[in-house]
Each structure stands twice: as structure tokens, then as C-alpha cells.
Design a protein that fits this description.
- With 522 residues, this protein is an alpha+beta fold.
- The protein is 36% helix and 12% strand.
- The protein has 21 helices and 15 strands.
- Helix 1 runs antiparallel to helix 16 and helix 9 crosses helix 12.
- The protein is globular, with a radius of gyration of 23 Å.
Length: 522
């Protein structure tokens, strides 16, 4: 690998059709940065820009003669790819969604961020290096050797640490009666008092909602209603649901040996999967269990169609799915914690100045066979998306200023401001509740996100947590294939094949593709 560019399979670009597409896109970065004009190009969807504007104002106040120029763009990922490749019209900082940044490292196009990671920021507990302030699960996730034998250093940073899962309408939940009994839990006719705690409960809640469809239509004035919706244009969010159930069944930090198939099939833990020690990681029993749980909620294998969702969901954009949810045509929507801020313009459909209903994120319901703790209860595991990218081009005009700005974004004050304004978290060891004062209190959605994070026993991430850098495989560092890389018919097969067959095809596909994946990173 030394002296050669590493060959990489590009990662899936996600989130490009979010509601931010409606936002102004500036001048689309047609000119490069000027000296002392720190130019930042960022994705306009999701978390918005107010937090970034606040940081820019603070940076300018502490850097006399420096101007921060913010250029929001819903298509910044493709723009960044073009500009990094050409070396022309570069911004000083790019902030975007999933992106194959590893390839840019091998080409020498990214600035080394060691100075940023080693910098100290002030916290309520005193000064701490940024690399030590980051959550342990992701602190080393952006380190990479540029070529064989070179030191491993950080090249990019993470922005959000967004819980992936289900957002729900609390009023609709609390007004829905049970149509079936659960011993020791509820009787027929009792109202739901809390979100579903298991996948079986989630299926029961969907059935209960379907049973009161006519009542909900009359109450909301709508002509259509379904329990759930999702964006078919971004099926990756459906996969993130499955990742969570996979981790629960397989075990993340240690094997869930209570499940005989986990012990028999091998492949290690959920976190071991992401180190790609061999093709056997694609034989993890948690994969089949996760697909089965997904199909229980979303798929009718008899008709080969989705259930509990609008049939048009397969063609929905993120905005379409969010809009249907805010219009109360569904009781739940699949997405991430960024969704509340992203729906700012549509949460008040009736125009009274208040959210039309209480929106919250639920803890991911436990799959049957989920790993349990010492108390015998299922461990709480949510998947957290940390695939966004913040980077500085090596040929940027203001590299040192850009590094200083990234350091500013890691200060405790900046982290708290981010959470206050976006209702989601950043991957650092700070307490978001420190932001609450006489002048500010979090709303119900943000509180649910914070409470879920704090209550989680394991924060699942797509990273080989616990694996030392020197033990990371080249495939984990440069390629990171997933199940639809091994089995390209994965998404379509969810409607036509049972979970066991799909899992077998994933494993056989991985065995076939493994030599190619290894060759791509040599």
C-alpha cells in the first residue's frame, strides 16, 4: 500500500433529500476562500444553521480582522467531492453527511487534525484535551494511516451523535386502548401509558392503532392513516433500525451466549463485525434476528408488501415522511434525533404558534432474545448515527484558522448551544442538562433524546469499539462493507424472502466478495 492511493468502495451518501433542500443554497461555493475570510460549506438539512451562526459570531469576536463566511447547501457532498478532486474553489471547512473521506486521505487532500484533537478546551471540570473529551465509543474512529508504515492520525471530526429509531406522537399513544391483554402489564381496554418496550409490543401497538383508524380519521380530519411511515428514498434509516436489533440480539460488548445460535454461528459481537476479521462476521445470528424483527413490524410476506405504512412510503422523500407525520396521518416516523429541528417549519400545521402535538423519541424496543443485564431485564441499546463528516482540505487558504474554529466547536459552551438549538447531541462527555437555566428549558423532544442517551446501557455505533488501532483491519479502515454490499438484492428481498434465507444470502455473498474487498484495500 505504501506510495499508492488506497482503492476504496465509496460509502453510501445519505441524507441528501432532507427538508433542508428547501433552504437557500448560497452561491454553491463557486469561489475559493480568501485569506482571513474563513469559508465554511455545510449541509443545510437536519440541524440547521443557527448554532453555526452563533459559533461564527463568537469566533469573529475573538479574531480581529477575520470574517466567517457560511455557505449552506443541500448538495454539499457532491460539491465537496468535485472541489477536493480538482483542488479548486476550496472552502476552508466542509460539513456534510456520509462521505468516503478515507480515499481523500490517501490522496493527500485532507489536513491532519492532530493539533485539534490534542488541543485543550475548558469544561466545568477543568481543561481537557479534545481527544479525551470525545465519547470513548468514537474517539479513535477518524484516525487513519495515510500509507503503510505511517503514523495513525485523525483526519476528520464528527458533528452530531444522533439516535436512530422511532419518533412518536405522545398524545396519540396515550389515547390508544389495548385490543389484547398482556399478563401482568395491561388488560383489554386499558390505555397505553408508555412507548412499546419490545418489538412484540410495537407490533401490538400498530394493531391497536389500526383498530381505531376510523376514530383517528374523524379526530384529525384526515382521509388516510397508518401507524408508521418512513422515507423510501433513504432506506438506510430502516437499516439503522435493524442494526439496533442486531446489536441487542448478538451482544455488543460481549457475546449474547444466552442465544444458542449466537454461540454456534460465531462471528463475534456486533462491535467485532465492524472490524471485519473475516467473512464469518457476516454469519452473525443477530443479522437474521434483526431482519426477522423488522419484517414482524413492517412486512407482510404473504402479499409481499409493506404493512403498517403507506404503500407510497417506498417513494417518499424525508420531507414527505416527516410531513405525513406532522399532519397526524401516522403515529410514528422512522428517523434520527435531528428530525425535530428539521421539521421546524411544519410542526405547527394549524398555525397557532405551538407544536400540534408532543413529539418524542422512544427507546428502541427490545427484540426477542435481546441480551439481558444482571437484573434479568433486556439491556437498553440504541443505535447512534455518527457518520457525518467535518474536514479541512490540506490546500485550504486558512488551514490554521479552520483548526481554531473546530476547537471552538468542541468547547463545552458550544456543545450546549448545539443541543439547545438542535435537540440532539454531540459525541462528547458533557451534560446537556447544564444548559437549563431560569431562561431556558428543554422541550419534551429534546428531553426524550437526552433521557434515552443517559438510560442506554450500550450506545451502538458502526465502529469496532474496543479494538486497538494496531488491530484494525484494512477493510474496517478503508471499505466498511455492509449487508447490501454483500447481497445487492437485500432491500428488495425484505418483501419476498424470510429472514433466514436473506441471512444465508448475505453470508454467501460476503464469502464470494471477500477476496475482492481485500484486494481493494491492498
Amino acid at each position: 500500500m505504501k506510495g499508492k492511493a488506497v482503492k476504496i468502495c465509496s460509502l453510501i451518501f445519505a441524507g441528501m433529500l432532507a427538508a433542508g433542500c428547501m433552504a437557500a443554497c448560497g452561491d454553491r461555493g463557486t469561489t475559493g476562500a480568501q485569506e482571513n475570510v474563513l469559508t465554511i460549506r455545510y449541509f443545510t438539512g437536519g440541524t440547521g444553521s443557527v448554532w453555526l451562526e452563533n459559533a461564527a459570531e463568537k469566533f469573529e469576536a475573538s479574531h480581529e480582522g477575520v470574517t466567517v463566511k457560511l455557505e449552506g447547501d443541500s448538495g454539499v457532498t457532491s460539491l465537496m467531492q468535485t472541489q477536493l478532486t480538482s483542488g479548486k474553489d476550496l472552502a476552508d471547512i466542509y460539513m456534510t453527511n456520509e462521505f468516503a473521506w478515507q480515499e481523500q486521505v490517501s490522496m493527500g487532500r485532507l489536513a491532519d487534525l492532530t493539533d485539534v484533537y490534542e488541543a485543550e478546551v475548558q469544561t466545568k471540570d477543568g481543561p481537557v484535551k479534545i481527544k479525551d473529551y470525545m465519547l470513548d465509543e468514537v474517539a479513535e474512529s477518524r484516525y487513519l494511516s495515510r500509507y503503510e508504515g505511517s503514523p495513525s492520525v485523525p483526519w476528520t471530526m464528527l458533528m452530531g451523535f444522533s439516535q436512530a429509531g422511532l419518533v412518536y406522537n405522545e398524545e396519540m399513544l396515550l389515547s390508544t386502548p389495548h385490543t389484547t391483554a398482556k399478563a401482568g402489564e395491561w388488560d383489554v381496554g386499558d390505555l397505553w401509558t408508555a412507548p412499546p418496550e419490545t418489538v412484540a409490543d410495537l407490533v401490538a401497538y400498530c394493531n391497536d392503532l389500526n383498530a381505531r383508524e376510523d376514530e383517528i380519521l374523524e379526530m384529525t380530519g384526515n382521509t388516510e392513516f397508518d401507524p408508521l411511515t418512513f422515507s423510501g428514498n433513504e432506506p438506510v434509516w430502516l437499516q439503522r433500525l435493524m442494526y439496533g436489533w442486531w446489536g441487542q440480539y448478538q451482544g455488543a460488548e460481549k457475546l449474547n451466549t444466552a442465544n444458542a445460535d449466537v454461540a454456534e454461528q460465531g462471528g463475534g459481537t456486533f462491535f467485532d463485525f465492524w472490524n471485519y476479521g473475516s467473512a464469518d462476521v457476516f454469519n452473525q445470528a443477530g443479522i437474521e434476528a434483526a431482519i426477522g424483527a423488522f419484517q414482524d413490524v413492517f412486512v407482510d410476506l404473504n402479499t409481499h408488501q409493506y404493512k403498517n405504512v403507506p404503500l407510497a412510503s417506498t417513494s417518499y422523500s424525508t420531507y414527505d415522511a416527516e410531513r405525513r407525520f406532522t399532519q397526524q396521518q401516522t403515529a410514528m416516523v422512522v428517523g434520527g434525533a435531528f428530525i425535530y429541528n428539521e421539521m421546524t417549519g411544519v410542526r405547527d400545521v394549524d398555525g397557532d404558534g405551538e407544536d400540534d402535538f408532543t413529539m418524542k423519541m422512544m427507546m428502541l424496543p427490545a427484540v426477542e432474545g435481546a441480551q439481558v443485564g444482571d437484573d434479568g431485564e433486556p439491556l437498553k441499546m440504541n443505535l447512534y448515527n455518527c457518520e457525518d463528516v467535518v474536514l479541512i482540505p490540506s490546500q485550504a487558504t486558512n488551514v490554521e484558522l479552520a483548526k481554531e474554529f473546530l476547537i471552538l466547536l468542541c468547547e463545552e459552551e458550544s456543545l450546549l448551544d448545539y443541543t439547545k438549538l438542535t435537540s440532539e447531541l454531540r459525541p462528547f462527555k458533557y451534560d446537556p442538562m447544564d444548559a437549563e437555566t431560569e431562561d431556558f428549558e428543554y422541550g419534551p423532544f429534546a428531553l426524550s433524546v437526552i433521557e434515552n442517551f443517559n438510560a442506554c446501557d450500550v450506545h451502538l455505533v458502526r465502529c469496532p469499539v474496543g479494538t486497538e488501532m494496531e488491530e484494525r483491519t484494512l477493510i474496517s479502515l478503508y471499505s466498511q462493507p455492509i449487508w447490501d454490499t454483500a447481497y445487492t438484492s437485500f432491500t428488495a428481498s425484505l418483501l419476498t424472502q424470510d429472514a433466514g434465507t436473506i441471512a444465508e444470502n448475505i453470508y454467501s455473498g460476503a464469502q464470494k466478495e471477500w477476496p475482492k474487498w481485500e484486494a481493494q484495500v491492498r
